[in-house]
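hey so i finally got around to running the thing on that chain from the lab meeting. sorry it took forever, my laptop kept dying and i had to restart like 3 times. anyway pasting the input first so we r on the same page abt which one it is
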Amino acid sequence: MHTKYILISCDPEDTNEIFMALKDIQEISEAKMVEGPYDIIVKLEGNNEEKLEIISTQLKKKIDKIKHTLTLTAIQN
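ok and heres what got predicted. didnt touch it at all, straight out
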């Protein structure tokens, strides 16, 4: 199982709309609104690393109100 975390930055008035749109993406196993330099954190899980990479890189294009993302890949033993 592969895991990626995506930190999402957006305008405060768009946070709820983006959060709801993320729920339609099957590979997202968890999404939370957070306080700090980022507004939402998303956990992607799946068996196909390449598919997760495509989703993480295309997320900003799919949801145009996302201003910035930072993707972290979990290293598992």
